[in-house]
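Bench notes, afternoon.
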Amino acid sequence: MLYTDQTLLDGVLEPYKENCRYLKTARVERGVVEDAALAAHCTFEIPESCYIADTGHFNSVEFNICYNQMAYYLIAKSVEASLVEPFVSWHMEDYWERQLPNILIADFRSKFRSPMRSSSFSGTLQFVKVTQRSGDRPLVLIDTVCRYADAAGGRAEGAVKLVITNPPPRP
């Protein structure tokens, strides 16, 4: 189990505006949650929405922002600690070059099971399947599932397919 690497987390969140850095901690573990290849267990705080007056609940925009922050951190940690293929052969420079322009959401599904407070909650992101496609347009495809919960029983979940375009050439 790998606990929050604050230096890495700060780097991952650097592109975000200060008031939109919601991810506070991330504990990463391999293949122990259901059948996931890799999982991150995270905590979040949203003291104030970065785009709208307080709605009193966790909403779809915040779901997506928190998802992105978990995904960026889990990919970066996968590269840094060589946790799962194909990231074993990547260097951190490869990740930093691709974080914003090449990590894309191809399919996004979310469900809100019960209202959640956004001020303090937890989230889990699981890499269910990671594959690299070769050829003239190489891609890394990552099938993920995520869940959020608060202390009062609020719950939300989702399934997201990530695509990383222009991965570094395989050695």
